[in-house]
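Agenda item 2: zinc ion complex prediction
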Amino acid sequence: MKAPYDLVIAGGTVATASDVFSADVAIRDGRIAALGHDLGAAARTIDASGLYVLPGGIDPHVHLAQPSGEGIVMADGFESGTLSALFGGNTTVMPFCLQEKGRSLREALTAYHALAEGNCYTDVAFHLIVSDPAPSVLGQELPALVADGYTSFKVFMTYEGLRLNDAEILGVMDTARRTGALVMVHCENEDAIRYLIGRHEAAGDVAPRAHATTRPVAAEREATHRAMSLAEIVDVPVVIVHVSNGPAIEEIRRARARGRKVVSETCPQYVMLTAGDLEGMDWEGAKFVCSPPPRDAAAQDACWTGIEDGTFDLFSSDHCPFRYDDPTGKLNPKGAVNFRHIPNGIPGVETRLPILFSEGVAKGRIDIRRFVALTATHPAGIYGLSTKGSIAVGLDADIAIWDPKAERTIRHADLHDGSDYTPYEGVAIRGWPATVILGGRVMIEEGRLVGAKGAGLHRARALSSLTAPRPL
Ligand code: URP
Ligand code: ZN
Ligand code: ZN
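Presented output:
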C-alpha cells in the first residue's frame, strides 16, 4: 500500500514569519500536506533534529544571462545561477528580463524562457525591465504581460541607454496603476553622476574607487525621494530596490509617514562592504563595483537598523555576476583602464542567506522569524508568488533545512556560480543550509547535489499583495 506521504521532515524546529514551533512536516504531491506530530507513514523520512526547517529562500532580485554591453558577458546563465542559488538555500529566484530599446518585451521574454527552460535548479519568475516605454508597450504589451503573470516592472533612473526620464517613469507607473503591476525603481540621479564622471575623468581620476565617489549618497537620496514623489503623483505603491544608506532610508520612512505604500530592499553588499573595498591594489577594487556603491560604516549601521526595525521588507542579493580576471568581465580592455567601463554588479546569490543568517540571526540582530519574513514570506507576498513563502498546509513544499551551528568560511572555490571570485572571500559564517527541497523533491542533501537540472520551473505570478483587490 502506498504511504500517505511522500516525505516527512521529522523532529525539526519550524520557523515562519510569525511563529517558531516544533513539528514534523509532511509532503505529498509537491505540496505541504500536514504539520504536527506522529503524522503517520511516509515513503521517506528526513531527520531534522537540531535543525531549522524554513521556507526555501526567494531571491527577489537577481540578474542572469542579461545582455550587458558590447564584449561583456554575464558570468551566470540559468544553469549555474540557479544551482548557486539552490546551494545557498533558495528555491525560487526572480531574474530580470531586459527589454532592449526599440524591441518588444514579449520577444525578450521568449528568448529568456528559451534559455531557462530545462536548465533551472530552482523555480524562476521574471520581472520585466522597461527601457523603451513606447505607447504600444504601455498600452498593449505590458497589460497583456501582466495578465500572463509577469506582474512587476523595473525602471532605471541611471545608466545611459536604460534610464527613463520622469515623464517616462510616470507613464510606466500609470500602466502599473491600471494593471495592478508593481514598479521597482533603481534610484540614482544619472545627470549628477554624468557630471561627476566628467570631472573625475578631466582630473585623470579613473581607478575603481572613482565609481563610488561619482555615485554619492545625495544622488541616491535625491532619486529615492523623486521616485516616491512620482509614485505619489500617480498614486501607486513603489519598490525602492537596493537601498545603500541612511539618508535614503530616512526618505523612505518620511514617505511612509505620509501614508505612501513604499516597499524597500537592501542587500548583503550594503551591510558587508564599504567604498574602501573599491581601493584594492592592481585594480582589484573592480570586484566590488556595483550600483549604488557600498558606502561606509555609518551606512552599514543604518542598513542594519532598517533590517532590524522593519523599514526593509526585502533582503535580496542583486546577484549580477561578472568574472574579474577576464576580458569579457571586470577587466575588459576598457574597464581595465577606466572605472566607467567596469561592468556594474557583483555575485552573491549563494551567500545572501548564509550572510543574513550569520550576521543577523546568529549575532542576535534579528530573530529567525524576521529572517524568514525578509527572505521568503515578504518576497512571496510582494511579488505575487501565492503558493510560496511559508510553511503551511497547501503551499509548495519548498523547504530549506538549516544547520544553525554549521561553521563555514566563504571561499569562492566552494561556491557554484560562474564568476571567478566572491566579494566575501574569507568571511566566517555560522549557519548554513544543509538540505534543500524544491516542490517536494530533495535537491541538496547534506550539502551534496542530488536533484536534477530542469526541476526548477517558471512560475507565473499573481498580483502583488499591495495592488491586488482585497477579498471581502
Ligand atoms: O550594480 C548593479 N547593481 N548591477 C545590477 C543592475 C542593477 O542596477 O540592479
Ligand atoms: Zn538596479
Ligand atoms: Zn539589480
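Discussion summary: Residues 61, 63, 318, 320 surround zinc ion (ligand 3) (CB under 6 Å).
Owner for follow-up: CH.
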